[in-house]
Amino acid sequence: METLTFGSSSLPPLIFLHANGYPPAAYTPLLRLLAERFFVRAPFQRPLWPGSQPQDLKDWKPLSQDLLNFLEETGPAVVVGHSMGGIAALRAALQSPEKFSGLALLDPVLFPPAVILGWRLIRLLGLGERLHPLIAAAQRRRRHFDDLERLFNGYRRRSPFRYFSDEALRAYIQAIACPDPQGGWKLCYSPEWEVRIYLTGLSPDLELWRGLRHLRPDTLIVRGAETDTFLPPAASRVKQLNPRIRVETLERSTHLLPLERPEQTARLIAF
Fold first, then answer.
1. What's the domain count of the chain?
2. Residue 73, Cβ neighbours under 10 Å: how many?
3. Which range of residues forms the domain containing residue 95?
4. Which CATH number do you get for residue 113?
5. Among candidate residues 78, 105, 116, the one with its CA nearest the CA of residue 235
6. Distance CA 243, CA 230 (A)
7. 73: helix, coil or strand?
8. What is the pLDDT of residues 114-157, one digit of tens each?
9. Helix axes 61-74, 84-95, angle to 10 degrees
């Protein structure tokens, strides 16, 4: 499995799992900060594997098994996951807690049970692609770029990137743009995979809520104050089920908090 590494192998190990649509290099500012205290490995999850087929994914459980396989090779580690990566890490920690020396979930895609049941019904009716709020944008995603500086300037004006520093935005652009043999740059993370991840999430996640009260590793959840994903009702429910889980909120941040607030995020991850 292709992996980015940061820091010295003499430091305690940390595994970082990226979000849907955000390759590991997009988190370079955060990962460099974490590398001051950890030996950081950021594996490419299966949407970035050469030859991987989106239609083979039925739910997100294989992402957790991929992590457990990786931990078999590396040994126990602190595991940090953002969004999709957080859910992959949480499910793996419930299954094999002995492989985790700490768990940090950065704005995980953990919705209240009522939302999960609603999404199950939507998928049963075959309306997932029509009703998921992010799929249409993913399907329209631009696939080819001629000039990364022009792309940076265009993204700099977009609301989703309002809290990104210039360093963070450049890291994101360099991560999503791969050289195109035909000239220019192409999108590294395919829209087909992005859509498939959106479609196949949530449905089995009631099991995560059932398992939370028994979660054994020391666990931190960090949410953005302006997130549309890990919402206040979910945060309250987590704390009711398992008061040992620490939940922190970062101001002036959204679902993209590890890219928006790398310094504050790194300080909170202390196991």
1. 1
2. 7
3. 3-268
4. 3.40.50.1820
5. 105
6. 17
7. helix
8. 999 999 999 999 998 888 989 898 999 989 999 999 999 999 99
9. 70
